[in-house]
Amino acid sequence: MKQFVYEYATKVYFGEGAAKEHLALALSSYGPNVMLAYGGGSIKKNGIYEEVTSILKNAGKRVVDFSGIMSNPTYAKVQEGAQLAKKENIDFILAVGGGSVIDCCKIVAAQAKTEEDLWEMEMEKHKFPTEVIPMGAIVTASGTGAEMNGGAVITNEEKQIKTGMAASAPRFAILDPEYTRSVPRMQVISGAFDTLSHAMETYFGNSDKDNVSDDVALSIMRNTVVNMRRLLKDIDDMEARGNLMWDSAMAENGILKVGRVTDFSAHQMEHQLGAYTDCNHGQGLAVIHPAYYRHIVKDAEEKFTRFAKVVFDADSAEAGIDALAAFIRECGLPAKMEELKSKVTITPQVLRKVADTCNVIKTNPRELSRDEIYEILMECM
Ligand code: NZQ
Ligand code: ZN
């Protein structure tokens, strides 16, 4: 194992009614000015907005809305939120949504505390924020695990880059499976596939042999597949939704990553694909994963064989990848670039740009050249 320091920064309140039971107390030690951040309006239709604002008002908070956070949140939206937070003297940011709302708020929280441009500070000066407005997350769509980590994925439209930024993790996360009831079926499945991807990407990093993280990651993968299959039969199976909500947090809360390196190559390709196409994150991953794994299977055959057996009851490394590809189809997820919802037509030229601009990982079974990344992406056409 590599050296590590480990601490859980986020207190989790899980279960039905968690906001009603815990939100007021969770906010009691913060000032009165709360920024209530959300996306395109789903929380106004499903009653969550009303429930949360009434809890906040009864707790004596002044609520300032920050709305319209889009999927694949942009750096421009971060700046809008930071301006508002400064103007309104915000004491606490409450993100109510999926990964996009939570990520946007993490960076708003840091940008509101500095006059420096945060993108420039992190990407060019390699300095990271030390002061943030405290924030919390109420998850309404699970999958990313953003509620329990300090990273955020932001799209800089001007620079055509979608990438991870560092910030602070939420102080608390409220995970109520009931709050996800109205999530459209395809988003539920895409989110869960993202969870599966996080556990796979961690597992296929070059870990020490017999690292406990590998065993836990495999369990999360298997459990995610089992519960996704339950949802394919009945999308309103709330027990399965709850299981997946915790799988999602477990896969990205850092517990799998202590003392080891990870892969996350599929994520790097998907993030840049997202920068050019604005495609759905989980769906982009579904398209890329099998093609990527067929390229590296020989470089980590033992690991792929174990993955095949534990997650899909398949009996060889290659059969495991075939089973993953079949599972993607079984879920109705896109398996080809042309099946993705994209703001531009995905052409070989677009994929060349993606290959030329994505981060290249060095801790995967084999480092890929940009030409090989392009080849992988072209195989997804
Ligand atoms: O905007 P609204 O109207 O709320 O609609 C959203 C959005 O259209 C909808 N939704 C959310 N809760 C709902 C609901 N609809 C009905 N009922 C509800 N209860 O769901 C749609 C998708 O939401 P979004 O937040 O975009 O999805 P997701 O949670 O998959 O987040 C994706 C973003 O997270 C990043 C991705 O790159 C992408 O930008 N990621 C963040 C990570 C992290 N910070 O740890 C890790 C991931 O690998 C990922 O990269
Ligand atoms: Zn992801």
From TrEMBL:
| All residue ranges annotated as the Fe-containing alcohol dehydrogenase-like C-terminal domain in the record | 189-379
* UniProt-listed Gene3D superfamilies: 3.40.50.1970, Dehydroquinate synthase-like - alpha domain
- Boundaries of every Alcohol dehydrogenase iron-type/glycerol dehydrogenase GldA domain copy: 10-177
PROSITE patterns registered for this protein in UniProt:
ADH_IRON_1 (PS00913)
Question: Which keywords belong to this entry?
Answer: Oxidoreductase
Give a Pfam family name: ADH_Fe_C
Task: Please provide, in alphabetical order, the Gene Ontology terms of the cellular component aspect for this entry.
Answer: cytosol
Which SUPFAM superfamilies has this protein been placed in? Dehydroquinate synthase-like
Q: Which GO terms describe its molecular function?
A: alcohol dehydrogenase (NADP+) activity; butanol dehydrogenase (NAD+) activity; metal ion binding; methylglyoxal reductase (NADPH) (acetol producing) activity
Q: Which top-rank group of organisms is this from?
A: Bacteria
The name of this protein is Iron-containing alcohol dehydrogenase
Organism for this UniProt entry: Candidatus Copromonas faecavium (nom. illeg.)
